[in-house]
Design a protein that fits this description.
The chain has 399 residues and is of the alpha+beta class. It is built from 11 helices and 10 strands. The strands form 2 sheets. Strands 1, 2, 3, 4, 5, 6, 7 and 8 form an 8-stranded mixed β-sheet that branches. A two-stranded antiparallel ribbon has the order 9-10. It starts with 7 loop residues before the first helix and ends in a 16-residue tail after the last helix. It binds flavin-adenine dinucleotide.
């Protein structure tokens, strides 16, 4: 055990991940951002290092690792390249963990094989008119005989155009048009007819992973595609949100890793850069900034590790995951911004990674549940109350 309570195995995993991150992943990070190309070379490295699909149970070819193990790998990768960190998130958490928890044997085998061979699954919830209010989604799956026919549009889908496996959420209606709840379906790009990648979003940061609009046009699915059944009103979606707590911890970890990387650069530079005849870290204004940055990072890391630990044998606790994501995403933006300031004009140059880190880290108070909406989650858990955000009489879930 050590200060962070990591086991010997976890320290070894962390050291391995850090070594990989410090080499080729660091070297390629600027090019991944500039070219806006998905880093398939890094996917191969992650695969060889057995960092993809670590959390998949051993009977499906994974290593049955815990959330904290995945967090250690994500943290290390993200300090070098946030895009690569996100690939580790999405091959260990989110959609793949939902399939592993709720899928059939056949679905689990298929998803595990795809992830372990390098596919980063996409999770499709958000729509142009249904963001924070995901229950307001209008994508629908109509039962027709023994099939489901899916129609609708999702946007801001991470991996749209590179991911093959898609977990798609839609409102399910029976043959008579009665609403049954929100269900999750598996579809495979280039195999499932009717799944169309319509447009890539031009993003501020995290440019190595496409964010896309995806349209479903009479997408015809067999019953075996249903991975999270609606099970009555809202239940299917509740299962998804349970699995999504792991993704939130993962997203918080990427923000943490980016901020740690930026902090380290600032710390090193503060010793090298001299002004007024002394290293700039001899000025109290910067010493206190370093102190504040390190305090935020330590607190964020404790929240993230704690949330990850809460999920052993299941999914991370909703309250702890939301607290970790809110605090870490907001602190990471501040830490990266402060780190950039240490470099003066150089920090503003595209020749250094600080400006990329500032663009990348900005995302994490938005994607996967905004900081505002997660504060609602925290408040609801503390008050043990449902906190409906809709006006009285407004219930789109049954529409
Ligand atoms: C890079 C990136 C990747 C993403 N990847 C995916 C993905 O893979 N799959 C997917 O399904 N989605 C994805 N998303 C979408 C993301 O989950 C949504 O952007 C997010 O849920 C917010 O929805 P919205 O953008 O529509 O904002 P809106 O819901 O329109 O919110 C606008 C503003 O209003 C605030 N707000 C809304 N409701 C409330 C409330 N009740 N209380 C207080 N404030 C409120 C929000 O916090 C925000 O500040 C991604 C987004 C980004 C930026």
């Amino acid at each position: 055990m050590n200060a962070t309570g990591l086991s010997t195995d976890q320290l070894n995993l962390q050291a391995r991940a850090r070594e990989l991150a410090a080499g080729p992943v660091t070297n390629r990070a600027a090019e991944v951002d500039r070219s806006e190309q998905y880093p398939w070379d890094n996917v191969e490295l992650l695969k060889d290092a057995r960092l993809l699909g670590m959390t998949i149970p051993t009977q499906y070819g994974g290593q049955g690792k815990g959330w904290l193990d995945a967090v250690l790998a994500i943290e290390a990768m993200s300090a070098a390249c946030a895009v690569t960190g996100r690939i580790v998130v999405e091959t260990n958490m989110g959609a793949i963990s939902a399939v592993m928890a709720y899928g059939s044997e056949e679905q689990k085998k298929m998803a595990a094989d795809m992830v372990l061979s390098g596919d980063k699954p996409a999770i499709c919830i958000t729509e142009p008119d249904a963001g924070s209010d995901a229950n307001g989604m209008t994508t629908r799956a109509d039962k027709k005989g023994n099939r489901f026919v899916v129609n609708g549009r999702k946007h801001w889908i991470t991996g749209g155009g590179v991911s093959r496996l898609h977990l798609i959420f839609a409102k399910v209606y029976d043959e008579k048009g009665t609403f049954e709840g929100i269900g999750g379906f598996l579809a495979i790009r280039d195999e499932t007819k009717g799944l169309k990648i319509t447009k890539r979003e031009p993003t501020m940061g995290l440019r190595g992973i496409p964010e896309a609009i995806i349209d479903f046009e009479d997408m015809d699915l067999p019953p075996s595609a249903l991975v999270i059944p609606p099970r009555g009103l809202k239940k299917g979606f509740a299962d998804l949100m349970n699995a999504y707590n792991s993704q939130r911890v993962g997203a918080a970890t990427v923000a943490l890793g980016v901020a740690q990387g930026a902090y380290q650069l600032a710390l090193d530079w503060s010793e090298k850069r001299h002004q007024f005849g002394r290293p700039i870290n001899e000025f109290q204004g910067l010493q206190w900034k370093l102190a504040d940055m390190s305090i935020k990072l330590s607190a964020a890391q404790a929240l993230v590790y704690n949330a990850a630990r809460s999920g052993e044998g299941g999914f991370p606790d909703m309250l702890l995951a939301a607290q970790a994501k809110v605090f870490t995403s907001e602190s990471a933006i501040q830490v990266v911004n402060d780190a950039l300031q240490f470099f003066g004009a150089r920090g503003y140059s595209r020749e250094l990674p600080l400006e990329r880190m500032a663009r990348d880290v900005r995302m994490f108070t938005i994607g996967g549940g905004t900081a505002e909406v997660l504060r609602n989650v925290v408040a609801g858990a503390l008050l043990k109350k449902k906190l409906p955000q809709t006006r009285d009489g407004w219930d789109k879930t049954t529409s």
